Amino acid sequence: MQRRLQLSTKQGFQVSRKLIYFSSKPNERLGSFQSEFDCQHFDRFDAFLQTEARPDVFLIQADTGDYSHDILTRIRGHGDYYCDLCFVDGEIAGSDKLLSDGGIPDPDALASRLSEVEDLHAAFKRRDEPLYRDDRLLKYLWLRPGFVIRAHYDWSSPGFYSYPLLEALSFSEIDVRAWLRNLSLKKFLDKQELQDRQRECPHCRSTHLSFIDVCPNCQSIDIEKQISLHCFVCGQVGPQQEFLRNGVLICPKCETHLRQIGSDYDRPIENYSCRQCDHFFDEGDVLARCAVCSRSMAVEDLVVNKIYAWKLSELGQIVAIRGAMTDILSIFTEMNFVPQELFLHNLDWILLQAERYPECTFSMLGLYFVNLQQMVDMLGSARVLQKVEGFAERVRESLRKPDLCTRSTENMVWLLLPQTGSEGLSSLKTRLERSIEQLQEADAQKLVCEFASFSSEQRNAGENAELLLARLRSELI
Predict the structure, then answer these.
(1) CATH topology of domain 1-123
(2) Would you call 241 helix, strand, or coil by DSSP?
């Protein structure tokens, strides 16, 4: 935070804090802050930007929710002001409350709060500007001890829930869900209370779902409820209409005249019949239909998503103070990761299995980041981490639950892919090669990733896991 110095006859130089006050028209309340702050009033954010001022705090007096939303979201989405204190009085939407620092305090309380923030800001490890999104969030949370990132419910949102603060601080660089997952994997954030649990479409992750009963035989929706009868004499169960003959109840199977309910027959639970295939059933299947992608799926195929609140973790605080980031490829260690010893053990076992049972195929893919250290020296860890995270997300999307991942060196990652033949391996390799090219299309400096591939059809007799890994590694280095 930039500070302005002002001459004081008693104390020499003292800090004059700059306050920016937004309101659609002049407000008398601004006068109460002028003894403590260097104040300026603006009615629009664009007018403020033209001054190129570097304030210490923003105050917003809003007549409408749209007014507070426009200014508040632009502050949080601006590279120079995103972490500054911002207080709002008046009209403000529920989601925007998660971006503000609360209502406007009195001048003394505001001065005290700013003093706390200045001390915290001095302790924050200085980074090169502009800050990477992880650093932006760490800085924002570090300056607000105990702050909890909460999800906001909005029925019109495809996922019902959003994280307004993360959306603002991401600067639209990454999908917020993917970013939140990365932050959790890096242990920068700790889960707090569970806000909700919901089921989502496995294809587009929308929560806008409808549910419909269908025939379990032909999946038709053309079903209708039927009153059924149960004949005690022969056990026949069927629609009531089948038992009606000339106004009396007669079993269509044994021809018994059913006179007394409870002794001759009864009415079991309500049943259904399908008008398409005439199937008779007591309970239909339930299908979920997504209103966004129009796909249908069984209820058990829906994805369960837990919505948590989040807080800066102890590791996140350490990173904020020391600026110590985890190593660049650490994101891969949370991707079906096993230690190298266990990876080799599994590889030895699957080699033996493939030797005895040739139909049990498997493949391996090695990822070697050739110029990782040179890129870090040239661009800095933040920019290289951004490249690697984008690629790691593509790798994660391609992995299945049985697949395993490990690291043998600082810049080498291995993937073990059971039940994957040479054709599947070639397809995966092509997708990943295309992904890393697409992610760096506009970059002058490119991170180079080379691939070593192996399928069980290429195995050598007597070759164990350690020898195989060494052979593949020699192809890369």
Answers:
(1) Rossmann fold (3.40.50)
(2) helix
Classify 245 as helix, strand or coil. strand
pLDDT tens figures, 365-414: 999 998 887 887 787 776 787 788 888 888 888 888 889 998 887 788 99
**Residue range 327-476, CATH number:** 3.30.70.270
DSSP state of 439: H
81 SS3 class: coil
Contacts of 45 (CB under 8 A, 6+ apart): 22, 70, 71, 74, 75
Question: Coil, strand or helix: which one is 286?
Answer: strand
Q: Please name every residue paired with 90 in a beta bridge, in sequence order, or none if there are none.
A: 62
Transcribe 386-429 into DSSP letters.
Answer: HHHHHHHHHHHHH--TT-EEEEEETTEEEEEEET--HHHHHHHH
Domain ranges in the chain are 1-123, 327-476
Task: List pLDDT tens digits, range 274-306.
Answer: 989 988 888 889 999 999 999 999 999 999 999
Burial (CB count <10 Å: 0-12, 13-18, 19+), residue 77: middle
pTM for the whole structure:
0.64
